[in-house]
């Protein structure tokens, strides 16, 4: 029996091959061995809304009014965020915003200062 890699999305060990695709029956994620090796080669590059590469410690500005989940407040356009941390996941920026506290933002809604 061949050793197939675990699912990169949910880490399930029950992956199987279908042609040149690898499929996870638990989360229905599909990928190829080529894309799996491309993703593991280097760190993920995170870009802002204008296509500038973001680094940890950068300062960014919010480009769109964002509703704060679980609250009735809104993060206004033009809000400056200092000293960001880049993380893996759907929301790829961790930060602290004055008046709001710790937040997670998507890189598509910010621009580098």
Automatic annotation (TrEMBL):
Record domain Protein YjdM N-terminal: where: 4-32
Entries under SUPFAM superfamilies matching the protein: Prokaryotic SH3-related domain, Zinc beta-ribbon
Pfam families documented for this protein: YjdM (PF03831), Zn_Ribbon_YjdM (PF08274)
Domain of life from the UniProt record: Bacteria
Domain Protein YjdM C-terminal, first and last residues per copy: 46-112
NCBIfam families linked to this entry: phnA
Protein family (similarity comment): Belongs to the YjdM family.
The protein's name in its UniProt record: Protein YjdM
Organism: Paenibacillus crassostreae
Taxonomic lineage of the native organism: Bacteria, Bacillati, Bacillota, Bacilli, Bacillales
């Amino acid at each position: 029996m061949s050793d197939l890699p675990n699912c990169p999305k949910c880490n399930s060990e029950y992956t199987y091959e279908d042609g040149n695709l690898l499929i996870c029956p638990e989360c229905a994620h599909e990928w190829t061995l080529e894309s799996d090796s491309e993703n593991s080669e280097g760190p993920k590059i995170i870009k802002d809304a204008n296509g500038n590469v973001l680094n940890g410690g950068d300062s960014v500005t919010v480009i769109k009014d964002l509703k704060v989940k679980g609250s009735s407040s809104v993060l206004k356009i033009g809000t400056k965020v200092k000293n960001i941390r880049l993380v893996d996941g759907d929301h790829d920026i961790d930060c602290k915003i004055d008046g709001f506290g710790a937040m997670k933002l998507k890189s598509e809604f910010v621009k580098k200062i």
